What does this fold into?
Amino acid sequence: MKYVYGPVPSRRLGSSLGIDPIPLKTCNYQCVYCQLGKTTCFTNMRKNYAPKFEILREIEIALKISENIVDYITFVGSGEPTLYKDLKDLIIKLKELSNKPVCIITNGGLLNNNQVQEALMLADVVLPSLDGGDKETFLKINRPHPAIKFDEVIQGFIDFKKFFNGKFWIEIMLVKGINDSKDQLLKIKNIIDKIEPDRIDINVPIRPPAEKWVKIPDEKIISVLDEILGDYNNINFPEIGNFAYYSSNFEKEFLSLIQRHPMRQEQIIETFTSEGLDGDAILSKLQTLAHQQKIERIDYLNSTYWELKR
Ligand code: SF4
It folds into this structure.
């Protein structure tokens, strides 16, 4: 499948069926920590990047196979999902097809856009990012499209949350030396108090980031977070569980999964080990794909990851 993947284990959402209507690295941000690599299509244009009927056809097939085993249906993936112009239609159709809660993982940069607000109001959970407490830090860490202004983004969060009936969970990605100081966290907290989210998720770049200089904050950040944020949810741990796939074609299914994010080698082996395929056979397939320049090995934080060759 091209636009639907999983179920995948998610650190915040249990088992999640992913809907990915945006081409790889099509985004209005260029986050320094992005696990998908550098943004190659840097745009703020909302359009239907893939035919709606094809996405819906795949959703119907995937729901028949895995609706019973997923906790959430999540718009996420290779780019920023709110750039899909008819996102509202996709959510309406999903709600007709399934009772599972619909989530949108977004950078939040378009939450001040009326059409995006209308679409996201239909979701059950919206998970936007808030990484900078001021304009300078926002520009440094998220490197947004010039049409996206910090104050307008924050106002969009505040306005949307006021009328949204679902859950609004803000994620803060902490990067050492950029937004992990007490001063920055106080600024973020000040904004959060105006938004009043239902939950704050703290994350750190546990997968290989777009910029090699990006580092995880020191452990001492925990006491600062406790002091400033008080109640927050630490999601700094690897996902547990296997990724699902739809055919026995290892190369096709594996390349489709790592399009969404790099995978740890152990997780690849756990996911694809079957009667005909053991760990050694999988490692040999990985070497072949690397030799063919389709994937590359990245050593990051004492783990081996494999990602698409960039
Ligand atoms: S992390 Fe998300 S918002 Fe940031 S560049 Fe990557 S896809 Fe875009």
Notes: The pocket of iron/sulfur cluster is lined by residues 27, 29-31, 34, 36, 39, 79-80, 107 (CB under 6 Å). The two ends are 22 Å apart (CA to CA). Residues 52-66 form the longest helix (15 residues). DSSP finds ten helices and 13 strands in the chain.
